[in-house]
Model the fold of this input.
Amino acid sequence: MKSKKAFLLGEHTINIIIGILAIVILVLVGMGIFGIFSVDNKAQQAQSNLGNIMAVISRLEKKDGGGSETRTLASPQNWILVGWPVDFFKSEFSVASGRDNDDTKDTAYTQEDIPNECKSNGWEKCLCFCQLEINDILNGCNTKSSCGSLDKYSKIVIDNNPNSDRTLFIRIDKPKTIEITLDKQNNKLSIIEKE
Done:
């Protein structure tokens, strides 16, 4: 009688172990699927935000003197909003991008350094939401980005300081309020991060 109970207990233990392994495998598969959708979701969020910004710019273009509108960007987190080309102030951008400032001639971005998406569309100036890569922003933009043309503007400012002539980036690491301003008389587009 005892051997029959021991046999049933062993069989029951094996069923429990198999059940636990099946649950672990299902959880791992679920996490993998979630990761795939999460990456795609960030790209969709970037595309949606860029579409909203370009729609604001389009509305401001229709106004006589231009104007301004405020938007809040909450996503995609750990992405950046950056204007290209970024060679206006090479030494300042090389610091912002995490590059070594000692040899900006070799390390700073030039007029030709723009994301592949912009190049393939023939744009000389563009606005992009890019996956953040601290050491090489251009590589991040070439890996995952959503871009739109800004070729019609002679001056573009992207910064958190409205008095700056620098073209930097706005990092989305928490919800940010930005103000989009179009000065039609000076053909200047500003996207300023509000404090």
